[in-house]
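--- STAGE predict ---
source: upstream dedup step, 1 unique chain passed
mode: sequence only
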Amino acid sequence: MRLPRPSTIIALSLLSVATIQSLLTANNNVSSQNHWERLEKQESSLQSQVTKAGGKDACLKSDPELLRKFANVLWLEGKTHEASKVMFPFWAFNAQAELTNYNPRFVSDALMLADIYQSQGTFKHASECFESILSYEINRLDKTDSRVVRDANNLAVSLYLQANLQKDARERDKLLERSRQVFLLAYSVSDEKQSPSLVSVIKNNRAFLKRDYQGADSNHRKLQTD
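--- STAGE serialize ---
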């Protein structure tokens, strides 16, 4: 079971993934060494500030932006487990709150956490984040809003990646079918004139899903692709 080529399946959470990838693939030269040293210093400084503020739980309410900066530096260093532990309370706290109006901060925090989970390969947790984002947006935004389209694509991609790691064929088929349905949702509510690049990505992702599995599940049943 092969994993998808990153250049083909594309998530559009629009956060720092490209930056992380460029850091991880950078040449081991003086410039990159200095960059990592700067990140380590930033981590140490931010950790000290969080401690002085009373710890992560206190910062969540008193200085959430400090925690976000701390999580981002950890993420850029490749410390995804630590970064996810810092960001998870934002998602859990906001997910439990009664947010009647659209709150872009909740969405951006959840997107960041989902991207961190994807960076560490825990696609089940990433899918749960993307699912909560999509549900939140569908209940508060017009279904044709580009943010709904974007995060439907994000969820479909995450489900696809999750399926690739499934050893159980039936569970894998369920995830692939769910991914197909969400890709279809994203495409059906998208506006090519308004967001041509986004629609192009969705088309490419759907085509890759069909091509990668040759239009059939593990029992050779034909997958619907339209």
